[in-house]
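tool_log.txt
---
The assistant was asked to compare two proteins side by side. It first ran the structure predictor on the initial sequence, then on the second. Raw inputs and outputs are pasted verbatim so the downstream comparison step can read them without reformatting.
(1)
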Amino acid sequence: MEPREVEEKLAELLSEGEMETVPKEQAVKKKLPFKTEIRIRTAFDPIAVETKAYRRMAKEIDGRYDRYED
């Protein structure tokens, strides 16, 4: 098939029949990504455990983070 014939055939296929219309509001909702949230429950806070380990290894010059300690 020649490229021109292919283009004509494609144009014919695309223009056949009725065009499907979707209400604008519904189309916008389909384009929006759905919201997901993943929560993991733990018995302890791993960040707090790690922070305590670092604080045991070294002292800070100023005590600005002391108020966050348990």
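(2)
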Amino acid sequence: MQRIAALVVLVALAGCATNQRTSFPPPQGPASPTIPSPGRTPEPERVPERPSEPEVMPPRSAQEASSPAVLSLLGRADTLARNGNMDMAAATLERALDLEPRNAFVYQRLASVKLAQGQGGQAEAMARKSNSVAGDNPFVRADNWRLIAEARRVGGDRSGADEAMQRASSYRSASQQLMR
């Protein structure tokens, strides 16, 4: 048994002791800059032109941006809200946010529920969160600014409501231009 162990150790050591060198290709990096000869102006570096990318239409509805599981929860929340069960609707929407925490449409629906519950500050906060994850989507932003305007109006902030409605109007115009 000791001879077998010694043989295994010798074979392992022999494998380590071979004098093989592995050659790796030189690293591929940016070429070194050429130094112009005196009296010569270097040519400007040419950047290949990229073809212009077609403008992608942002999602206009939750159906275009949500997974089937989230769509199911949104449908349940809508039914609960229609039946006046706002607490359960809000809880259902929060479960949807657990699945898709960057879904602007879910935050928007939660803002609507909070507004219906008389929680204007929470409604505005949810609409603002929706805007923060909506990117440049004018469809979502227009509706969020309408919700913010209503939350401010209910809270007695008339000038804030007017400002929010102006922003909603500008995003509505942007969304209509995208539709053309």
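---
observation on (2): Residues 5-25 have pLDDT under 50 and may be disordered. Residues 16 and 22 are 13 Å apart (CA to CA).
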